[in-house]
Specification:
heterotrimer; A mainly beta; B mainly alpha; C alpha+beta; B: Cytochrome Bc1 Complex, Chain D, domain 2; three-stranded mixed beta sheet; two-stranded antiparallel sheet; 11 helices; C: Immunoglobulin-like; 2 helices; 9 strands
Chain lengths: ~110, ~260, ~150
């Protein structure tokens, strides 16, 4: 079960700038912390967050272990035409989560 | 000697600052109780108030998914018996309570596990497991904005009194009680942090230190570790007693679950 | 007698969330150099919004805003954030373009200690602008023991 919360307007005026906020459940284990047995807990982070608008990439973020657990990202986009905003998170241990939201542009 | 020891302890612990709790915000004129929210900076208050910024909402979402999922030998989901989430409105505001047919109080997580074992015929969720916290968050979220309203059940009184005793008893290597910090010195600083009044207004909480959601039980265990006392066992009745006392102490305050705390 | 108590008391306060491995101001400068090459980095056009006093370093809200028309001809193509005391100097790199409309990125970061944070914006014309902020991470009390 992927747990993602996305906040984007359902409708927008053509050419307006909208804010998109996304939150995802992920431990962002740094790879620098010792566990209860004294051994380092292996790194497990989201390395990349990418956003597309109707398939065209509009935003990309390379993350490091310094991004807080349950990563939150906010960015802006020009509401050019109606369509789908695709969000994709990829990371260690084969982590891939995709989420889509629709924005109707008037 | 005892006085000296206490003096040293307090000097270390409370040395940083004596800044008193500032303005009593809203909540009418007479209620001077402060939720932990009021002790947080603006950035964290905003994080708590925005449902797409509050990481606790990820667990509420997960709880909603679990609510509709059949489990156990009975093959029933929470929704099969309780219907929609609206049926849970007010529940978290009055727990701990004594479930029907029993004579001892349980907290919200305990109540969820009773449903697991008795009705769903499934294994109970381990303490602090993601599933248990998610369901507790989902249920508690339905009471967000409601006043804390402990039930008017006389059978709870002895448990609550015992909880109050536990609150006041000195424990651990630091020889501190809950009350010394959270009644007598609330609003002052411990290291860099304002000591809160410890009202259970937002459980389960997303605590930044934990980087995840956690229960009041986990928070109490933290406090016990902080005063260098041995935390009670996870299934100890003491947690429920303290919960009962704290909910009564916070009676009428607004539930904020899932709250964000530093 | 009292010494043990004193030690126990201090231990409760002094445990820090990170240890040994640590970036340094030099490591941060090197990481920045890797991104900007030999280009000059000017102060300005970038604003870095962080709470000045952080209540818990594990989750620190941060917003980087850069002044830019964000047109095809003139836009911000990347925002890089660095720190000087976490185990690694890089925090994130965001890549943007005219379709963002505004060169503003928000996220939450971890800070192991009080330190300087630097944000660098790269324009489509290859210029680098920057802002920095000093953040105080307050010392947490009563940290949970790993059990």
């Amino acid at each position: 079960m992927a747990n993602v919360l996305v906040n984007a307007p359902k409708t927008a005026k053509r050419g307006s700038i909208v804010e998109i906020k996304a939150l995802i459940l992920h431990p962002m284990e740094t790879g620098f912390r010792p566990g209860p047995n004294g051994r380092i807990i292996p790194r497990n982070i989201i390395e990349r967050f990418t956003a597309t608008w109707n398939g065209t990439e509009i935003f990309d973020m390379e993350m490091s272990p310094a991004i807080a657990a349950n990563p939150f990202v906010s960015f802006f986009a020009v509401a050019s035409e109606s369509g789908t905003v695709g969000l994709r998170w990829t990371g260690d241990e084969g982590f891939v989560v995709e989420e889509r939201v629709s924005i109707a542009v008037e | 000697m005892k006085v000296l020891r206490l003096g040293i302890g307090l000097a270390i612990v409370f040395a940083a600052s004596w800044a008193l709790a500032q303005g009593i915000v809203d909540k009418g004129v007479t209620d001077k109780r402060r939720s932990g929210t009021q002790d947080m900076g603006e950035a964290l208050q905003k994080m708590q108030d925005d449902d797409t910024a509050n990481p606790g909402m990820l667990f509420v979402q997960l709880g909603g998914q679990l609510w509709g999922k059949a489990a156990g030998a009975a093959g029933k989901s929470c929704a099969d018996c309780h219907g929609g989430a609206a049926s849970m409105k007010g529940v978290a505001a009055r727990y701990p309570a004594i479930p029907k047919g029993t004579d001892a109080p349980v907290d919200l997580e305990g109540r969820i596990n009773l449903c697991r074992t008795a009705n769903q015929q499934a294994d109970s969720f381990p303490p602090e497991s993601r599933e248990l916290l998610a369901l507790a968050a989902y249920v508690a979220h339905q009471s967000r904005g409601l006043p804390i309203a402990p039930p008017d059940d006389p059978r709870l009184a002895p448990f609550r009194t015992r909880g109050q005793d536990l609150w006041k008893i000195r424990q651990g290597q630091l020889n501190l009680s809950c009350a010394i910090c959270h009644d007598d010195n609330a609003g002052r600083k411990l290291a860099g942090v304002t000591i809160p009044e410890a009202h259970p207004t937002g459980y389960p909480i997303y605590r930044l230190e934990w980087q995840t959601l956690g229960s009041l039980k986990r928070r109490l265990r933290n406090c016990l570790a902080g005063i260098r006392a041995e935390p009670y066992a996870y299934d100890a009745a003491e947690y429920v007693m303290l919960d009962l006392f704290l909910m009564d102490r916070a009676k009428g305050m607004t539930l904020e679950s899932p709250a964000v705390r530093p | 007698m009292d010494r043990r108590r004193f030690l126990a008391g201090t231990a409760a306060i002094v445990v820090l969330p990170f240890d040994s491995a640590q970036a340094t101001p030099e490591a941060m400068a090197a990481a920045i150099r890797k991104v900007v090459g030999s280009s000059p980095v000017r102060e300005g056009r970038v604003s870095l919004d962080l709470p000045p006093l952080v209540e818990n370093g594990s989750t620190v809200p941060l917003v980087v805003s850069v002044e830019s028309p964000m047109t095809e001809a003139d836009y911000i193509k990347a925002i890089h954030v660095f720190n000087e005391k976490n185990p690694q100097p890089g925090v994130f790199t965001a890549r943007l373009g005219p379709r963002n409309g505004r060169a503003v990125v928000g996220t939450r970061i971890k800070l192991g200690d009080s330190q300087k944070i630097v944000a660098i914006a790269e324009t489509s014309g290859g210029q680098f602008w920057s802002a920095s902020a000093d953040v105080i991470v307050t010392l947490a009390a009563c940290l949970e023991e790993s059990t």
